[in-house]
Automatic annotation (TrEMBL):
<keyword id="KW-0378">Hydrolase</keyword>
<dbReference type="Pfam" id="PF13472">
    <property type="entry name" value="Lipase_GDSL_2"/>
</dbReference>
<dbReference type="GO" id="GO:0016788">
    <property type="term" value="F:hydrolase activity, acting on ester bonds"/>
</dbReference>
<protein>
    <submittedName>
        <fullName>Rhamnogalacturonan acetylesterase RhgT</fullName>
    </submittedName>
</protein>
<dbReference type="InterPro" id="IPR036514">
    <property type="entry name" value="SGNH_hydro_sf"/>
</dbReference>
<dbReference type="InterPro" id="IPR013830">
    <property type="entry name" value="SGNH_hydro"/>
</dbReference>
<feature type="domain" description="SGNH hydrolase-type esterase">
    <location>
        <begin position="32"/>
        <end position="182"/>
    </location>
</feature>
<dbReference type="InterPro" id="IPR037459">
    <property type="entry name" value="RhgT-like"/>
</dbReference>
<comment type="similarity">
    <text>Belongs to the 'GDSL' lipolytic enzyme family.</text>
</comment>
């Protein structure tokens, strides 16, 4: 009887320990550019989608936003921003990797050829896995470019396609924010979709006092919309340890 009682106690302690481990916070690191980064809400109405992502998770998931404006896979690696993430990341943490906007740039410090872009992503994926972390690839959000009431988006070129193909070939989770944001902008149309992006009148934003007609960066409405897309996709794909903590209003 004593052995049975001890066994029951041991099992109970093990179950409690497992519950406590499951309740530990899982980190999601975000590596990307200005469309994801966090902004000072006292200075600008511009928002990054990752800035809004915490609103879609409960207290067991922590969002660590390391996205930075103007960065491509090339400059993010060169400036050792990726190394900083790898130095902090723990086993079972996630890292969402979303680049492309600045890789397509003609600026030499940013531009990455298609081959280099692919190799840079592979490097990031391998290094994350080496830390027993969980990489997720995300395509860039669509650049809201209309002509004759039709959406045309050729500025991102083949970078979203490369991201998509790489995720498939390496069996890495993909969040196709390019496709989802494109479909949304098409459904909304030219004028209504401006409310998602930094189309603002003069006097609204202290950083852009003369107003803005920006088809790349997001206002709060757009950032919340993209963040919800990301969280919904995480839940739909049932990603381990974080899917059950998604909150969709």
């Amino acid at each position: 009887m004593k052995i049975q009682n001890l066994l029951i106690i041991a099992i109970g302690i093990l179950l409690i320990s497992c519950r406590e481990q499951k309740n530990e916070s899982i980190n999601i690191f975000i590596c990307g550019d200005s469309t994801a980064q966090s902004y000072d809400t006292s200075k600008t109405v511009m928002r990054g989608w990752a800035q809004m992502l915490p609103d879609f998770f409960d207290e067991h998931v922590t969002i660590i936003n390391k996205a930075k404006a103007g960065r491509s896979t090339k400059s993010y690696l060169a400036e050792k921003r990726w190394k900083e993430v790898m130095d902090s990341i723990q086993a079972d943490d996630y890292v969402i990797i979303q680049f492309g906007h600045n890789d397509a740039s003609s600026k030499p410090e940013r531009h990455a050829s298609y081959a280099d872009y692919k190799q840079n992503l592979i490097k990031m994926i391998k290094e994350a896995k080496a830390k027993q972390a969980r990489p997720i690839l995300a395509t860039s959000i669509v650049m809201r470019t209309f002509k004759d009431n039709a959406l045309i988006d050729d500025r991102l070129k083949a970078y979203p396609a490369i991201t998509r193909q790489l995720a498939d070939s390496l069996n890495i989770p993909l969040i196709d924010t390019w496709l989802q944001s494109r479909d949304l902008v098409v459904m909304l149309g030219d004028e209504p979709s401006k409310a998602l992006y930094m189309w603002i009148e003069a006097g609204i934003d202290s950083i852009r006092p003369n107003g803005s007609q920006d088809d790349t960066h997001l206002q709060s409405k757009g950032a919340v919309t993209i963040a919800e897309m990301v969280a919904t996709d995480i839940k739909k794909q049932n990603l381990k340890d974080i899917a059950t903590h998604v909150i969709i209003p």
